[in-house]
Amino acid sequence: MSRKLHYGLSVAVLALIATGASAPEILDQFLDEKEGNHTTAYRDGAGIWTICRGAIMVDGKPVVPGMKLSKEKCAQVNAIERDKALAWVEKNIKLPLTEPQKAGIASFCPYNIGPSKCFTSTFYRKLNAGDRKGGCAEIRRWIYDGGRDCRIAQITVTGRYRGVTRRARWRAGELTDKQNILLKKCGLLTRTDNTKSCELTKTK
């Protein structure tokens, strides 16, 4: 039996949320599932050399082809990137957030699209204006990577399947009332897949 629920949250992530886990714990589990943990450098959806859980820099230096890290080093890199993302949320989101909300926002913005795009996004403006539902609805508009529509399924050069956008899974209207309560409204993360994210550009 699949360990994924029909609306996408894994049993592990859902259990963390239901038991009141901290944002770092929730974010770690979610990123482990969705980003994977690669100890050898690989190209992400935008063609950028990446390692571990999506890091593009290690010890202040860019990731390069052929780079390999130990699992222990990746754990260190992942913790740094996780803490940076959550610190960004704490500093820049001006309304009260639950732990799942912190994890969800950190995963999307800045972890996925980057701080510069976050600051100029309608998502950021609406959320900080108190429009949680409107802010969450904006997430599904981020569907392009390098001009490529990530909703179109592709076979990568490694033969791995890559399909729909990850952030479009967070659609505000796709959760039942019970799920919304459990996930704290925008406590987030709906419709999963096992692919790397590639939402870097918003639709018009």
TrEMBL record:
GO terms for biological process: cell wall macromolecule catabolic process; defense response to bacterium; killing of cells of another organism; peptidoglycan catabolic process. One of its GO terms (molecular function) is lysozyme activity. Keywords: Antimicrobial, Bacteriolytic enzyme, Glycosidase, Hydrolase, Signal. It catalyses: Hydrolysis of (1->4)-beta-linkages between N-acetylmuramic acid and N-acetyl-D-glucosamine residues in a peptidoglycan and between N-acetyl-D-glucosamine residues in chitodextrins. Its EC number is 3.2.1.17. Pfam families: Phage_lysozyme (PF00959). The keyword Signal applies. Residues 1-23 form the signal peptide. Belongs to the glycosyl hydrolase 24 family. This is Lysozyme.
